[in-house]
Amino acid sequence: MDAIEVIRAKRDGGELTAAQIDWVIDAYTRGGVADEQMSALAMAILLNGMNRREIAGWTQAMIRSGERMDWSALDRPTADKHSTGGVGDKITLPLAPLVAACGAYVPQLSGRGLGHTGGTLDKLESIPGWRASLSNDEMLHVLRAAGAVVCAAGSGLAPADKKLYALRDVTGTVESIPLIASSIMSKKIAEGTGSLVLDVKVGSGAFMKTPETARELAETMVALGTDAGVRTVALLTAMDRPLGRAVGNALEVAEAVEVLGGGGPADVVELTVRLAQEMLEAAGVSAGKDPAKALADGSAMDAWRRMIAAQGGDPDALLPRAAETLTVSAPASGVLTRLDAYAVGLAAWRLGAGRARKEDPVSFGAGVTLHAKPGDLVHEGQPLMTLHADETGRFSRALEALEGAYAVGPVDEERLPLVIDRITA
Ligand code: URA
């Protein structure tokens, strides 16, 4: 078989055979198909799509390119959650220990942020001493100690995806539903979780800007998980405005700790509890503890402290703070009708919370704190947001990102409900 034949087949709108898919993924992983050939094929897939059989075959071939983890030695079911990424989306932080406290194990492999959305590992690394890289034995140790582990995926997991994702990032081929779905699901299936809840974000701050495209991505991923024997459910949730009141690494950890302490913003609490219920149901742990009770009685907080400590972190350490702050005030009195998620994410990124290239460092203290959320009444001149940065020179570009991103009016406007839809197989 040769790469040109596979590229031509997809370029001309044809279906790839199972043998073509297996060959091209394997040869690409080993270096037998060149980056420029895989780029051409990724572009042909972006333009012409793949059907359900092709996407399933592509996903399985990427799983087979590396190791598949196995948690069958554990005495309780496993459950995981994946979010397609959003602004202020720190839900994994309270959710993983919460689900552990309610009776399922949570083995979660996470990523770092790139662009305007943050990464869970960057957030957790703002906790002094916390380590993202664990061996499989260390993962098992943390799971047994705390019931949940959140760490970086090792290089042995779906190496074909690692190579292909880096290539897509620089060839304008990220935005393809078959490629996104197979990329996410190859890693989640290889991770070995028995059940999976997908949080597919919708709106300006998300990959998917409309409920229709988000639904297509969710349905594709739910079908892939189900076909691979993983009990999979998806929620479509709002990302037209930021989630919670904190955007930025250490700021988000502090908010997650508030939620684990029984407080925190209503939207973060609501989504954390709902996703926990979905994970426990998918894992078949119906007799476990009620997630709302586990937040109120401190058992989720206990699991968090064990999880952080088992990965070298100090749960009592002071979190890093940015040296400089700037307040943005409400321009008028009325209802805050709009606060655009993408603009706030971009502002946080420009303040130093995110990175432009994979190798860049992040500022742990940088970001945005929101003092009002859409639907809240505000008075002219009251603080609307605080910007946090290590250098004052970063404020002007962040303020530019926020121009036109919020509005105050006499009456509230309609916005997406927090949970828009639920997708099952
Ligand atoms: N996240 C992934 O892991 N892969 C994609 O293709 C997009 C988002």
From TrEMBL:
Q: Which UniProt keywords apply?
A: Glycosyltransferase, Transferase
Tell me where on the tree of life, at the top rank, the source sits.
Bacteria
Phylogenetic classification of the source organism: Bacteria, Bacillati, Actinomycetota, Actinomycetes, Streptosporangiales
GO biological process entries: pyrimidine nucleobase metabolic process; pyrimidine nucleoside metabolic process
Q: Record's PROSITE patterns?
A: THYMID_PHOSPHORYLASE (PS00647)
- The first-level EC class reads transferase
Q: What is the protein name stated in its UniProt record?
A: Thymidine phosphorylase
Q: Which family does it belong to?
A: Belongs to the thymidine/pyrimidine-nucleoside phosphorylase family.
Keyword NAD on entry: no
Write one Gene Ontology MF term: 1,4-alpha-oligoglucan phosphorylase activity
Q: Transferase: is it a keyword of this entry?
A: yes
Write down the Gene3D superfamilies for this protein, in alphabetical order: Nucleoside phosphorylase/phosphoribosyltransferase catalytic domain (3.40.1030.10), Pyrimidine nucleoside phosphorylase-like, C-terminal domain (3.90.1170.30), Transferase, Pyrimidine Nucleoside Phosphorylase, Chain C (1.20.970.10)
The record's note on quaternary structure and interaction partners says: Homodimer.
In terms of NCBIfam families, this protein maps to: PRK05820.1, Y_phosphoryl
- Which Enzyme Commission numbers does its entry carry? 2.4.2.4
Species this chain originates from: Nonomuraea phyllanthi
Query: What cellular component terms from Gene Ontology apply here?
Result: cytosol
User: InterPro entries in the record, alphabetically?
Assistant: Glycosyl_Trfase_fam3, Glycosyl_Trfase_fam3_N_dom, Glycosyl_Trfase_fam3_N_dom_sf, Nuc_phospho_transferase, PYNP-like_C_sf, PYNP_C, Pyrmidine_PPas_bac/euk, Pyrmidine_PPase_CS
